[in-house]
Amino acid sequence: MSVTLTVCEKSPGGPPAEEYSLELKEERITVRDLIQNIVFHQVYKLNTAARDWNRMADDREQLLNSKPAGQGRTVDWVPKFEQALKAFEFNQIVLLVDDTQVEDLNEFVDLTPRTKVTFLKLVPLVGG
User: Fold this and answer.
1) Distance between CA atoms of 75 and 84, rounded to whole angstroms?
2) Least-confidence region, from 41-45, 107-111, 123-127
C-alpha cells in the first residue's frame, strides 16, 4: 500500500523552507531508501523544469536570455544520492521523521499520511 508524506527542506540562514508531498510505495522503509526517494524526487523536479524551459523558449529567445542553472544537461540522481549519503554520515544533514532525529541509514521508519520528514542541511561554521 502506498503512502503520501510531507517533506520539508530547510537550511539555516537560507531561503524559506520548501514543503512538498512525496508518494512512496511502502509504509515501512529504511532511512537510506527514504533519502534515495527524496533525492530522486528533487533531481526529477530539476530535470523536468529544465525541459519545460526548453519547450517554452524558441532558439532565438534561448540565445538572448540567460538559461536556468543546469539547463542543457540532465542531472544524474545517483551521484547526488551518494553525496547525500556522505553528508548524512558526516552530520552535514539531519533527517527528522515526525520531529525525531534518525541517525542510522539502516534504521526502519514507519510512514503514515501524517508523517512529516524534515531534511535539514547544516552549514559549517567559518573558522570553527
Assistant:
1) 15
2) 123-127
What is the domain range of residue 82?
3-121
Instruction: Outline where 1-128 has alpha helix (H).
Output: 31-56, 59-64, 77-89
| Amino acid residing at 15 | P
Measured distance CA(101)–CA(112) in Å, rounded: 17
Segment holding 5, helix H or strand E: strand 3-10
Number of domains forming the structure of the chain: 1
**What are the phi and psi torsion angles at 90 (to 5°)?**
-100, 20
CA atoms of 106 and 128, how far apart (whole Å): 31
- Render pLDDT for 33-70 as a digit per residue (tens, 0 to 9): 999 999 999 999 888 876 655 555 555 555 556 555 55
Cross-strand partners of 21: 6
pTM for this predicted structure: 0.77
Work out the burial of residue 5: count CB atoms within 10 Å of its CB; fewer than 13 is exposed, 13-18 middle, 19 or more buried: buried
